[in-house]
Each structure stands twice: as structure tokens, then as C-alpha cells.
Write a structure and sequence with these properties.
The chain is an alpha+beta fold and about 160 residues long. It is built from three helices and six strands, in the order ααβββαβββ. It is about 30% helix and about 30% strand.
């Protein structure tokens, strides 16, 4: 009988150890980056910003015109101006630029790909992403990018 008791005790210990290391349920734990993104998006949404302007600049291995002043109304980019030249972005090219909600969507999509680098800072007052640096894979050249958002003005 002592052998059966030892086996039973070892089985109980093994099950207890296994249970301690297996997360409850089937969901993955929330990463700190995902939690920060969700919190910032909630703060942004709570502000109810329907119209605003901001300066956007992207840094990547791509053609760039430098900083762009973007005007948003509703959920659409309605105007954009190249800061360097003062020239408006042609209407058919406005879809190249994102609203703040679009930037949040872009960050979520990058996070869903489990990037090797995901560094984002969020505005303390409004919650929008004020800077981001993303690198999806160390094996892919030139897919990394970063951006900044500055001069946010609500109500324009």
C-alpha cells in the first residue's frame, strides 16, 4: 500500500504543478503593450473628437514628403498640407493618410503580428499615439517604420 500512496501523492503534486503553470481558460494574457494601447484608445474615444488637426510625420524606407498637417472631420481626412512647401495634398491622395483612429488600428494590426519592436508613447491628455517605432521582423529588411504626431488641436 505504501507504493500506491507514493504514486498517488506524486500524481497529485504533478497535477498541482501543471495547473499552476497553465493559464486559466484559452485566452492569452494581455501584454503590457496591448494594455497600454487599449487604455490610450479608451482615453481617445472618451474625448469624442469629431474634428481636429495634427502634424504627422512618418519615417521609413519609403517616399516621404516630410511632415504633413492633417485636418479631420467626422471619421475622414478632409485636407492635408505638405509643411515644407505649403502645398495641399491632392484629394485623391488623402486616403494615404490616417485619422487618429486609423493610427490606433494600424498599431493594433502591428501588435497582432507580434513585432520584435513595438515602442509607442501616448499623449498624456488626449491619449493619441504621439510617437511609435515598429519592427515586425528582424528577417525582413526595410519593413520597420516610425511616426510622430504633434501639434494636435481639437475642434478644427
Amino acid at each position: 500500500m505504501p507504493i500506491m500512496r507514493k504514486l498517488l501523492n506524486r500524481s497529485i503534486v504533478a497535477v498541482a504543478l501543471l495547473a499552476a503553470f497553465v493559464p486559466a481558460g484559452c485566452s492569452d494574457p494581455v501584454s503590457p503593450q496591448a494594455a497600454a494601447l487599449d487604455d490610450a484608445r479608451s482615453r481617445w474615444a472618451a474625448g469624442g473628437h469629431d474634428a481636429y488637426t495634427f502634424r504627422y510625420e512618418q519615417f521609413c524606407f519609403c517616399p516621404a514628403e516630410g511632415p504633413i498637417d492633417i485636418r479631420v472631420a467626422g471619421d475622414s481626412v478632409v485636407a492635408a498640407t505638405v509643411v515644407r512647401t505649403g502645398e495641399p495634398v491632392p484629394g485623391e491622395q488623402l486616403t494615404w493618410y490616417s485619422t487618429i483612429d486609423g493610427l490606433f488600428d494600424r498599431l493594433q494590426a502591428a501588435l497582432d503580428e507580434e513585432p520584435v519592436q513595438f515602442e509607442v508613447e501616448y499623449d498624456g491628455e488626449f491619449g493619441f499615439p504621439s510617437s511609435a517605432s515598429i519592427d515586425i521582423s528582424p528577417q525582413i529588411a526595410d519593413e520597420e517604420y516610425s511616426f510622430t504626431v504633434e501639434n494636435f488641436t481639437p475642434g478644427n
